[in-house]
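Example 205.
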Amino acid sequence: MSETVLGILASGRGSNMQAICNSIDVGEIHAKVGLVISDKANAKVLEHAEAKGIPTVCIERRNFASKQDFEAAIAQQLTLYNVKLVVLAGFMRILSKYFVNLFPGSIMNIHPSLLPAFPGLNAHEQALAYGAKVSGCTIHFVDEGMDTGPIIMQQAVTILADDTVESLSERILAVEHELYPKAIRLYCDQLLCIEGRNVKIISNK
Ligand code: GAR
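Predicted structure in complex with glycinamide ribonucleotide:
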């Protein structure tokens, strides 16, 4: 089986991008990162990718007349690098139906809560404000909704009585760094099958 080419989209710090790269480096994922795209020129993720010799592109929304033009520019780069799986790793934008249809069943996202609870921005803050006792993270395929696509994997993290946004984010992030590479590995090994809202993990292959 040939290496799957990943295209990572990220807006910020890039710790998930680094966790994915580390898993590739130690041979856990049979893939390579073709390029990293950010919508923020000063995003740390670009520096981390450059340090690893990964091609980077910054595509900012404000340089395009419409959302579709912006997304078309992203898609053009992904196609240029022959990307097969689009990995959203802290990409803080909702992708439209137009973009999602260009990569059917081939866009993944990570979200720091147990979806469908606490979608969108500030998931940790939402969980604490709600008084939830458990949160966690979710890896899912992307559809045109906000954090609504078919769920691939989830892992729970207990919320402690004295948790702050910082302490909860830190514990969930450690789980994210374990879970995202696992989900990507399953995709690259062709062990994921989407049946409606259900993602099945094929175990007898
Ligand atoms: C991660 O916690 C990820 O789950 C979250 O952004 C952070 C990015 O961190 N994503 C979302 O909230 C998406 N709605 P990173 O840049 O260090 O990987």
